[in-house]
Each structure stands twice: as structure tokens, then as C-alpha cells.
Known about the structure:
Strands 1, 2, 3, 4, 5, 6, 7 and 8 form an eight-stranded antiparallel sheet that branches. The chain is mostly beta strands. Strand 5 and strand 6 form a beta hairpin. The chain has a single domain (2-156), classed as Galactose-binding domain-like (Jelly Rolls, Sandwich). It is globular, with a radius of gyration of 15 Å. It has one helix at residues 82-87, and strands spanning 2-4, 17-20, 46-47, 58-76, 90-98, 103-107, 115-136, 145-153.
Amino acid sequence: MLLTPISASATPIKIASVSASSSFPPERGVTYAARQVADGKQGSSWVEGDAGSGLGSWVEVDLGAEKHLDRMKIWAGLWYSTDYWARANRPKDLELKFSDGSVEMVTLDDEMVAQTVHFAKPVRTSTVRVRVKSIYKGSTRHDTAISEMQFFDKESGAEV
């Protein structure tokens, strides 16, 4: 797994739907639903709603059809503001499970930057389940957040 910047020419795959093991309940008109990891807005986030710090929680994207993935981009944490990002838990180690049954482990940096993860080898899949295996602790919130995720098709012709 290699974290690198991604070129502006790469086009993300349109995500058909998103589900999650849980979601934090709406609070003061703000929602934390799973679909928010694919809404194109870094200021909205999925926040898990499990008891504890979110270890084992997952969010799963359905790509609508089988794709040939070789990388993803992730905005880990609650990106509403730098203050909110520091307050909430951020994922550190993630398990990516693909519809073909293969699994890849990735480790994210604890930085408020979009991180691109190149997979060890391309995978044909129609879904990706992203499970939180470990976290970076937030200063005041005990729940773990992911603001946005994008996936890229190796066969789309986009260059990285």
C-alpha cells in the first residue's frame, strides 16, 4: 500500500449506493448517514454509531457493477472544520474487503489531507467494505468519522 497524491485528471467511479454497520443519530439538524461518504462534500461525514470508539464498524460502497480497482482516495475524519477534525476519532488501520473475497489492509496517516491508497494489486469487485480496525483518538468525541471516499477504475484510462 502506497499513499500518494492523485492527479486532477483521474475520474472517480460513480458510487451506486452506500450502507453501514451503524450511523450516529442526527444532531441539531446534522445527519451522519453512510451515503455522505459519496456525496462529493468533504464538510459532511459518515460517523459510526456503535458503542465505543468504532472499532469493527464498517461502511460499504456498491459500485453498481464490477470494476477493476487499483486505488482509492479517502478523507479520514470529520472534515467540517479543523477543530471538528481534531475532536472526532479518525480511522488509522482499515480492512478493505472486496466482493471477490480478497482483503487488503491499509494504514492512514493522522493528517487532515486527502490520502490516496494504491492497492497492492488491482482487484475486480462490485463492492468495497471498509472496516475500522484501529483509530487515532479525537480530543472530545468518541465516534469515528470518514468524510469522503472515491474509487478509481484501472481500466478507465485515467492516469495517476
